[in-house]
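Shape matters. Shown next:

___
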Amino acid sequence: MGRGGIGGGGAVAAAMAAADVENTDSTRSFVNDVKRIIIKVGTAVVTGQNGRLAMGRLGALCEQVKQLNSEGYEVILVTSGAVGVGRQRLKYRKLVNSSFADLQNPQMDLDGKACAAVGQSGLMAIYDTIFGQLDVTPSQLLVTDRDFLDPSFGNQLRETVVSLLDLKVIPVFNENDAISSRRQPYEDSSGIFWDNDSLAGLLAKELDAHLLIMLSDVEGLYSGPPSDPQSKIIHTYVHEQHGRLISFGEKSRVGRGGMQAKVAAAFTAASKGIPVVIASGFAIDSIIKVMRGEKIGTLFHKEANQWGCSKEVTAREMAVAARDCSRRLQKLPSEERRKILLDIADALEANENLIRSENEADLAVAQDAGYEKSLVARMTIKPGKITSLAGSIREIADMEDPISHTLKRTEVAKDLVFEKTYCPLGVLLIIFESRPDALVQIASLAIRSGNGLLLKGGKEAMRSNTILHKIISGAIPDAVGKKLIGLVKNKDEIADLLKLDDVIDLVIPRGSNRLVSQIKAATKIPVLGHADGICHVYIDKSADMDMAKRIVLDAKVDYPAACNAMETLLVHKDLNRTEGLDDLLVELEKEGVVIYGGPVAHDTLKVPKVDSFHHEYNSMACTLEFVDDVQSAIDHINRYGSAHTDCIITTDGKAAEAFLQQVDSAAVFHNASTRFCDGARFGLGAEVGISTGRIHARGPVGVDGLLTTRCILRGSGQVVNGDKGVPKELVKELLQSKFLQTLARLLLESSLLFMTCNGAI
């Protein structure tokens, strides 16, 4: 880990290896060299709204301290809350000892020093109890500002703290408000330090800390009051940039300072060379995330003003840049756009070893983190995959150019021509999980269709996604711009991107039901995608069982983690206990498929009972159930399916046709594996995803699904003039779509046939 004296095999090391890699920030790489940490926890974190101790938050705090301590970090705690704890106890004591007259006219004003004296022992007792359960020993150190006036005090303090840290004891500091020289601890800001925020900053310098973490009741420093929707979190504080722009809200509801006090203490400590992060104490893992180098909270750093020159690209700037680049891409001749795709294919093949190396690094981290096998399978770039992807890109490059393709041309009046043409949607935001090969497919389709693109891949494949994005962007000419395809690395930016309905035109989430549902709920931008891949295969009573065996095994075993893999096998009831079905079930079990049964299958075959028919396994498991007939199968699929891909295996043409017409799914097959539902297998070259919606595009979405239409009118001075300016005596179709052309040809042929049959020809 690059941290002196610290082992690399503990819990934090493992957590860092499996961390949210996309959240890491290069400006926070200094945490790799941190050993001594001061954690300051405020009163608003220690206590709840009712003033009582927030035991859950205290427990999470102590668990994180324990984790760091066991990893070899030297952790010092500065805690507030003693006055709040004492006030609660004294209020209760005063209430108990009150007379009836006192209760009629309650006076609850309590001296802050008395509250501190009572609360210090109670607060420390809580820390001692929680840490004791975690096999950690805390120690209490109470200080006042007068102590620091003694020149020898600093040396004595350092000796004591170092001795405690060597014994892996957690020093717990608090200002001794009970004997403070200030007239009112909550009002008097004189002295060397004046609250626990400034005390934490002072101790960070005195004790040679490498990092100060200040836990607050908000996620960090905002550009305005956190309750204001217009306020944005500031991830890196630059005094020259933010110092005069920030407006502070109210002070802490219970403590002495509030955010203004924290900023002052953090800025002072940072100017002395001690990095400070203000983060939420309400989150259960904020401290660990800070130590991973994740981009959470607000960082104060001595060199932050230098970083400010290379300002972060905001979500809006990234989206606008992609849009501008897409417009330049659309202006290129078709052959130049085609060449970009060919160059990308060549670049991928030339860098295959590098891509595989980065992918293997992702896989190693995922396996060490204990990720599910199905997720690891989706992450894997297998041998030959890059060659296959390059081939798909070349197929897309060789497709007919879709941009400005004319669908229809009509002369609506003399010298007034109406045209409908294809045009790009604009800017696409694709959010996908696990599969780095999806990045290549999506990027190639976006380029062919002339769209700008923003990509957010899963954290587990960050290295794979980063190298693929770098290679693809490197093949895009400067005339278009490298920002045509943006890679979003921080998941916090997704929320900002989803608000940009004036710049981003379509969101396509590829992943779990939870991901798709969250995206749909969080944006006004149109969303195209599917939530689940609960694909069915129905074996009808007339099915060829040899064919059924081939199809079912392929649909389940070929790639069980795919969204088009079979999840439910429906079987006609007449096939129960037949040799053909028994052979099929045996083959599934031989392949390692675990079979769960619906109510009927559970009772007759004694297989484990499934909890729900609406279940996507993404693994070597499936649900089996018997149905009465094809109509029962159709009703079951329409009720429990996800409108993705469903298949019937039968030799009965009437049953097949009923299934194909009545199953309400994006793809419905007869005697073919559900695994065929794929853009490449449908001849689309690739796909950005599979849509189960009914608007804009459905099924595997290729280039045509990333296009919309533009209406063009070519005139010669015509005006409407109350519909008098343009005579409508002639509407001439100059060009029709292929569908309309085919329909016209069929009508003409039918007309000629009718005339022939009647002796007209």
Confidence is low (pLDDT under 50) at residues 1-22, 184-189, 251-256, 750-761. The CA atoms of residues 153 and 261 lie 25 Å apart. The chain is about 40% helix and 15% strand.
